[in-house]
Design brief:
Number of strands: 19
Domain UmuC: 30-154
Distance between the termini: 67 Å
Strand content: 25-35%
Number of helices: 14
Strand order of the largest sheet: 7-1-6-5-10-9-11-8
Radius of gyration: 28 Å
Shape: elongated
Pfam family, one: IMS
Keywords: DNA damage
Largest sheet: 8 strands, mixed
Family: Belongs to the DNA polymerase type-Y family.
Protein name: UmuC domain-containing protein
């Protein structure tokens, strides 16, 4: 049977975090975007008809005065740290579910304050006084049910959690594909899903479906196989000689420990579902936090949560009355507080696959340890209109996420002069078609900085482009700095782009050309405010 759980939920936390960290007023119409979609919005924005899932263009059309903030999980986690610390002052054993939500076993606070409702009121008051943050609390059996109850600030009576969940729509599982399939099968509520036989659910929907079935039945979100790990699974790093004071240095140390922890768990055929992060500062201050995850924590996920937590400790949010630690961290420990057996992680009979990859990973990590995380970079393909926009370099080991989403819908980070914020169909096997993007072939070499040049017509006059995109002359010669003019034997263009025209400080308007000169070279040129420059070189 699931344990009575008290869950603290801060509504619209990404919006509140933006206000805490960046000073964005949450009283106005504010939305937080991820991949050009609304993931959170303020109360004022909802009053204008804005909801989660809307595209940026549609949200701005409903509210022209809308303030847009990009999604930043690290910012959300850093701002949430003071809230967790405030809860810890009145309740022990707090576990972070996600930025904006944390949970604690309800029995202890209920006994101390004289009841579950009194405990909830005391915690809400503590958060408001310490952090100035609005919060809601739900109490039920299990974290999942308590989280749904928190949306209505409800205390579900003991033993009636399954009844409480029965009438809730299957979308509450936050698994869109599963919810869509269940609705097509005629199952629209959690109660209907919970009535299905467990064995049939496991065979039809797999491990994740079986986990969702447990949630719908009012059971805890972790399988019964969860057990206390043996002591030798935790990993510890010592930094007495050089205490960790900067977030980037601490995050790198945390990533090394995260990989070590993941490898140690894999050797036992286990995976982590709940992670304890402990640290000690040079002046003796002890810090501790527990992160809960609905599923299995990979090495990258462990490292990400360690980075968030270290950022929260070393860079306290502005509203927090407790200053950041006065001294650096001298000890960091990762404790797998909850583990499950996961046979898919066991080594093969004849050894691990991909040993060469592991050796390369260790070698590159060693280089980073000597020269810093930015010493080893990998390229990630992104969306964009220009050659320099379509590649993003990320440090080795970091999540390889495109800077611009590669979805079928054109992102609203740049808008073409002729096509503005329109969806463009994607042909099979091709990437997203950006309006105004460069035609194929792609250039072979993109210059780190554009190189100034001059384009002249046959009479030696400078070639320009009018406001109506008409050339003032036919390109005849290309003159590079320090060299004589080279005859242009072929050219194409102009391709105009007016990017971020709505943001005065970020707007960029230019026209691009492809030119070939007599000696066989080919260039991608750009014309900005009457100045020509080489952006890239073709083979």
């Amino acid at each position: 049977m699931s344990v009575r759980t008290l869950l603290v939920w801060c509504p619209d936390w990404p919006v509140a975090a933006a206000e805490i960290v960046e000073g964005v007023s949450a009283a106005g119409a504010v939305v937080v975007l991820r991949a050009n979609r609304v993931v959170a919005c303020s109360e004022a924005a909802r009053a204008e008809g804005i909801r989660k899932g809307l595209r940026r263009r549609e949200a701005q059309s409903r509210c022209p005065q809308l303030t847009v903030v990009e999604h930043d999980p690290a910012r959300d986690a850093r701002a949430f740290e003071p809230v967790v610390a405030a809860v810890e002052e009145v309740a022990a054993g707090v576990e972070v579910v996600q930025p904006g939500a944390c949970a604690v076993v309800a029995r202890g606070p209920a006994r101390y304050f004289g009841g579950e409702e009194l405990a909830a009121e005391r915690i809400i008051e503590q958060i408001a006084q310490a952090c100035g943050v609005e919060s809601q609390i739900g109490i039920a059996e299990g974290v999942f049910a308590a989280g749904l109850a928190a949306r209505d600030s409800k205390v579900v009576e003991a033993g009636r959690t399954k009844e409480f969940l029965a009438g809730i729509a299957v979308e509450a599982l936050e698994r869109p594909e599963l919810a869509d399939l269940l609705k097509r099968l005629g199952i629209r509520t959690l109660g209907g899903f919970a009535q299905l036989p467990r064995g049939d659910v496991l065979s039809r929907f797999g491990f994740d479906g079986a986990l969702a079935h447990r949630l719908a039945a009012g059971l805890d979100h972790r399988p019964l196989a969860v057990r206390e790990p043996p002591p030798d699974l935790q990993v510890t790093g010592f930094y007495e000689d050089e205490p960790l004071e900067r977030v980037d240095v601490a995050a790198f140390a945390g990533r090394v420990l995260a990989e070590k922890l993941h490898d140690r768990l894999a050797a036992y055929g286990m995976a982590c579902t709940r992670l304890g992060i402990e640290a000690v500062t040079a002046d003796g201050l002890e810090l501790q936090r527990v992160w809960r995850h609905d599923g299995l924590l990979t090495a990258a996920a462990i490292a990400e949560r360690v980075r968030w937590q270290l950022d929260g400790w070393l860079n306290r949010a502005a509203r927090n009355k407790t200053a950041k630690p006065a001294a650096g961290l001298i000890r960091l420990r990762l404790v797998p507080d909850g583990v499950i057996v996961h046979l898919g992680l066991q080594p093969g009979l004849w050894g691990d696959a991909g040993a060469e990859r592991e050796r390369a990973h260790r070698a590159l990590s060693r280089v980073q340890g000597l020269l810093g995380p930015e010493a080893v970079l990998t390229a990630v393909a992104s969306g964009g209109r220009s050659a320099d926009d379509q590649i993003r370099f990320v440090p080795w080991g970091d999540e390889r996420v495109a800077a611009r989403p590669g979805a079928h819908v054109v992102p609203v980070t740049a808008v073409d002069l002729e096509v503005r914020e329109e969806e463009v169909p994607v042909e099979a096997g091709q990437g997203p078609q950006w309006p105004g993007r460069l035609p194929v072939p792609a250039p072979a070499l993109v210059l780190p900085r554009p190189e100034p040049v001059v384009v002249l017509d046959a009479g030696g006059a400078l070639v320009g482009v009018s406001a109506r995109l008409e050339l003032t002359g036919t390109p005849g010669f290309l003159q590079l700095d320090g060299g004589g003019p080279a005859e242009i034997v072929g050219w194409a263009g102009p391709w105009p782009v007016d990017e971020r025209w709505w943001a005065a400080g970020e707007a960029r308007r230019r026209a691009r050309f492809q030119v070939a000169v007599a000696d066989g070279r080919a260039f991608l040129l750009s014309l900005v405010a009457g100045h020509w420059a080489i952006e890239a070189v073709y083979d």
